[in-house]
Amino acid sequence: MRSNQGFTLMELMIILAIVAILTGVAIPLYQTTVMKSRRTTAQTALLDVASREERFFAANNSYTSDLSALGYGVSSSSTSMPIPDSTNHFYDVPSPTVTTGASAGYTLQATPATSQLKDTTCYTYTYNSFGVRGNVNGSATLATCWN
């Protein structure tokens, strides 16, 4: 007598159901984690631009809206910088908005691009010369977005 080895249709259907459930849970969690890591990249970029603005101010006694003057590899006519790079960018950092006079300062923004547009939790990040952080059009609190 020969023994039949293999799986029954019922066993295969159970395994398929388990894999489908695990996939249904894992993919959204993975996408959320990827979006959070991209948010951190945007925050880091804003803080880097702020640091360069302060160095520029120390040397020139004024802020600049020219990203190339801050040492970024963009043309002087460029109005924004892709983050992290032009090939795979998920945020755009437009040229700083600079105010002059007695209340000289700057305001920075990181606006979502490409697939990061789906992230409605923390949408547009802002940072200014006074160290004030912001989150515009996001559904989460400021503390949640900047952690």
How is this structure best described in words?
InterPro entries: N_methyl_site (IPR012902), PilE-like (IPR031982), Pilin-like (IPR045584). Pfam families: ComP_DUS (PF16732), N_methyl (PF07963). This is Putative major pilin subunit. With 147 residues, this protein is of the alpha+beta class. The protein has one domain. Helices cover 38% and strands 19% of the residues. It has two helices and six strands. Strands 1, 2, 3, 4, 5 and 6 form a six-stranded antiparallel β-sheet that branches. The mean pLDDT is 91.
List keywords for this structure.
147 residues; alpha+beta; 6-stranded antiparallel sheet; 19% strand; elongated
The total of beta strands comes to 6
Cα end-to-end separation: 67 Å
Biggest sheet descriptor: 6 strands, antiparallel
Number of domains: 1
Shape: elongated
Count of DSSP helices?
Answer: 2
Note the quaternary state here. Answer: single chain
Radius of gyration: 23 Å
> Low-confidence parts, pLDDT < 50 over ≥5 residues?
none
Pfam families: ComP_DUS, N_methyl
Keywords: Membrane, Transmembrane, Transmembrane helix
GO biological process, one term: type IV pilus assembly
Protein name: Putative major pilin subunit
